[in-house]
Amino acid sequence: MSSRPPNLNLRHVPVDPDPPSPMFMVASRLLHWSHFSSKQQSLPLATVSHPSPPPPPPQSPQHQQSTYWPILSVALLLPLSTALVFFSLSTLPITMAWPRTLPDLARLGRELHGYAQSDATAVAHIVAVLAISAVWKHAWSIPGSVVWNVLAGALFSPAFATILMTALTTIGSAAATLLAMPLAPLVTRFFPRALDLTRHALEGDVDTKLHAPTIEPEPRRSRQSSAWVRLSVLRLVGVVPWSGINIACGVCGVSLWDCMLGTFIGCLPWTAVTCQIGDILQTVASHPSPTPQTVSSLLTSPAIIIKLVVLSFLSLAPILGREHLRALISHESSRDATMPDESLKRARWSVAWVHDWRTKIRINSRSRSREASEHELTTLVDEKRALEQHLAAAAAAAAAAS
What pLDDT, in 10s, does the model give residues 103-124? Predict the structure, then answer.
């Protein structure tokens, strides 16, 4: 018996014979989100969620101070060292502190020469002031070091002046290299490729790319030993400014010993030239002969002619021997040039053999990896279709049960 009230009329409404159940809708939405589609023939690569690295902690004030303190120290050293140079120049009994023209230089030379003749301590005083000012010039790349070389050649003997000014130039260049080291992080950040090329040029690391990536290159020290040779050649040729070489050595981290040795050897001929010029000018200006001589007769004397010949040789030797210096660089840049022919051929053959086998292995591994990828893709597609059929059957069963 029906429990329906007698006055209740039912109206038949057309209803879809298979309405989608909530479970079926949820399963369809999950399939859509998972990019599972019957029309799709390939599956996307599974993405593995790696935990993102934590953000770097903010730099503490102490770390920032340790970063910027060397740069601030270099900036403070400039006025302090300049004040020391001017104070040392003020202790000399001279009328002017800085020669600007040749007459000023001649007058300064006469005053210092007269002061040096007075006492032995006067010579030490002049050498000390000359050393402070010369090192300051080279350390801060201040122009005018040639004037100091000429002045030293006029005051002392050419040999002593050459050794003294070469040593002072070496010390000043080492100081410039040390002062440029705090700038390395800034240059590395803003000019990384230029810094890398400069480092390879200074250290002779030009054949690293010729080796196989898995072949261990030669030890680093075998290439660093030729840095002083390259620095010597760069200073002898005179194409690159010496101040630029000093800064590059400091920024690129060249060994201080290589920098000093290359500076001493490279600047020795040019320092000898300028000191000889000072000695010749002092000889022409002083007229040491008791008999009066003209300038032409003085220049044609055997001593002056020998000095001029030596001066010309020292001036032209680095330029004329530029090709030999470049050949020296190419031979010193790698120790492979000193290996015997048989061992060199054997090493080259072994490198070529490794390259050949690596290429074959890479090709075979690529073909095998491609076949394995296709097989895995087919398996995943089959599993996907089976999963779709299982979900559809489950959804139909749920709809029938409801």
Answer: 777 788 888 988 988 888 999 9
Alpha-carbon distance 247 to 241, whole Å? 10
Q: What does the pLDDT read at residue 220?
A: 45
**What is the average pLDDT score of the chain?**
73
| Among 14-28, 183-197, 214-228, 342-356, the range of highest mean pLDDT | 183-197
Highest mean pLDDT among 236-250, 283-297, 335-349: 236-250
DSSP label of 44: P
In one letter, which amino acid is 56? P
Give mean pLDDT, residues 220-237: 70
Q: What is the pLDDT of residues 24-64, one digit of tens each?
A: 665 666 555 554 444 444 444 444 444 555 555 555 555 55
Q: How far apart are the C-alpha atoms of 88 and 134, rounded to whole Å?
A: 12
Q: If 0-12 CB within 10 Å is exposed, 13-18 middle and 19+ buried, where does residue 323 land?
A: exposed
CA distance readout (Å), 393 to 213, 298, 398: 56, 118, 9
Residue with tokens 């015997």: 340
- The answer to whether the CB of 195 falls within 8 A of the CB of 252 is yes
Is 177 within 8 Å of 259 (Cβ atoms)? yes
CA distances from 319 to 246, 313, 339 (A): 21, 10, 30
Angle at 101 between CA 95 and CA 104, to 5 degrees: 25
Q: Is the pLDDT of residue 226 over 80?
A: no
Sign of CA dihedral 117, 97, 85, 265: negative
> What mean pLDDT do residues 166-175 have?
96
Question: What's the token pair of residue 155?
Answer: 């005051």
Q: What are phi and psi of 331, to 5 degrees?
A: -80, -30
Q: What is the DSSP string of 55-122?
A: PPPPPPHHHHHHHHHHHHHHHHHHHHHHHHHHHHHHTS--S-SS--SHHHHHHHHHHHHHHHTT-HHH
Q: How many helices (H) and strands (E) does the chain have?
A: 16, 0
Pairwise CA distance, residues 139 & 259, whole Å: 13
CA separation for the pair 148, 161 (Å, rounded): 10
